[in-house]
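Dear all,

This email documents one entry for the complex benchmark we are building for the journal club exercise. For each entry we list the sequence lines for every component of the assembly. Then comes the predicted three-dimensional structure of the complex as a token string, followed by one or two observations. Please use this as the template for your own entries, and keep the labels exactly as they appear.
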Amino acid sequence: MNDTDAVLDLHELDVLIEELAPGPLAAARTRRPGGGDARAELEREHERLLEALDRRWVQHYRRARLRYGRALVPVRERVCSGCHITLPTSAAPGAGEVLTVCESCGRILYWG
Amino acid sequence: MATELVCSALDTALFYHELRHRRRENALADLAAFARDRGVVRDPERLLAALRRREPCASSAPLRGAAILHARSLAVLDTHVVIAPAPRGLEWKPPGTPPVTLVIAVFAVHDHPLDAYFALIARAADAARLQRRRARLASPDAAVAFAAWREGA
């Protein structure tokens, strides 16, 4: 798995773990037919992905997640969905890449 | 109240798509491709991965004959509900369960508010229950039972 897929997967796992957060319905949502806790499994997968990821992306990811709750945001019409700043054309990723870092807020930008 | 539930479940952007498959995986791929063609999804592969990842957390077929799929993902461009009847019946998991004839897919953007997302899924489930009750009432057995009840009353 390349770094781009790993970062996107990390984000998807964050979204899913947030849905399974403790609450009145958490037990019903996370209980599995064969026993075990789905949330704990997802958190283990999250840790595995972080360990396998390039250190540069881990730092960006952790810093943005700690600060904003969400580390990754999509770019819509050249605007960062996190801080809503219009990105310069030079901020676009290179060929074959879909991730950059917003120079304004530090979130990871998804250009997919 | 039931009619209100249906309206509120359907008042978000809604699509209708008939599934002609028998197997669950084919139906999921068809739904993802359909959503991509309508501009709802930017990456159908990632959406499929999100749907598969959610299955162990909560079964997508909580009702007899109906399945509620849901994904809150970066792969989704705009929150939409897709109503997908499957007249041929879909083999769902686990094996041996009744075939699924109605799939309601809730696709939400990754930052859709959590409460609103759960409310949307709940309304989709209510709409599926209502559809099942309607189908039961419209069946020949129900007509016979109703006629017998009227004669007895």
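Observations: The interface with chain B takes residues 8, 11-13, 15-16, 18-20, 29-30, 32, 38-39, 41-42, 70, 72-74, 81, 110, 112 of chain A (CB under 8 Å). The radius of gyration of chain A is 16 Å.
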